[in-house]
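Subject: sequence -> structure tokens, single chain

Hey, anyone have a minute? Need the predicted structure for the following. Not urgent.
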Amino acid sequence: MPGGSAQDSRDFVRAVGSSTVYPFATAVAEHIANNGNRSPVIESTGTGAGMKLFCGGVGAAHPDVENASRRMKATEYQDCINNGVTEIVEIQVGIDGIAFAEAKAGPGMALTPEDIYKALAAKPFGKANTTRLWSDVNPALPAIPILVYGPPTTSGTRDALEELILEKGCKSKSGMIELQVTNPDGFDQICHGIREDGAYVDAGENDNLIVQKIAQNPKAIGVFGFSFLEENMDRLKGVPMSGVQPTYESISDFTYPGARPLYIYVKKAHLNAIKSLGDYVTEWTKAWGPDGYLKEKGMVIAPDDVRERNAKIAENMTVLDPQQLDPLLLQ
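Reply:
Had a minute. Here:
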């Protein structure tokens, strides 16, 4: 195997990455195991941490697959190249949404990206955040403390929170779009930086822990993948964003502001050495349709044309064109 010695081999697939993709990846792994293969090992490391592991090199010491709840960044692709990971296959496996939720007994919050930005940004519009209550952010909101449980910096869900929600709220003020072009680093600090004074609580890569925290505290809000909200509707209710409820339909048609694609990344160089890797990739294409078992797990099914295009990529193991990765938006 390239990059490894004779004894540096294994007979099972190893995947790392997103906690959001994790339950779908484990379902695929179970089906592979039922078909006579060694069960793949799936690790929930978070998308960012998983990318570092995936891009660490080629050989059995390194993962074969990266599960991602956002697209690979141009900087991550370059890290892969620098470490000899030169043939990367990008496959969109479905859709998800970053859902905001509260306990069933919660106050019935209704938020906008601007509300969330003003509540969670470390320096909203360049000034230190002094808000303590939701009513400080918007007088129409309840006078209760801002307390949001969410993912860590290693998580693709955190990236989506910053890029899909906070950034949209930040750009509601004139001058911010221009700042993105003239001073990208300054824009990143102002629009993506999240406060660290206790209003936002990093709950780690365990989305089920966030569910438990907000189910126990009616005044708290949680941020996680939509599938975790869907699985816990007996204890939680979705928080509408700009008047749109997080539902299967609003995420599948991208009317919900937090909708996002889900991906797996595969090392083409590992296909021959890890014998079940091809079967593992093919199993995704069998599972992601309207009648597939991933929908039962909470996966929002991608449109027909997206599935058809990605099924061809999986069949031919078409290598990713790095020109598709936007360095300005994703660095």
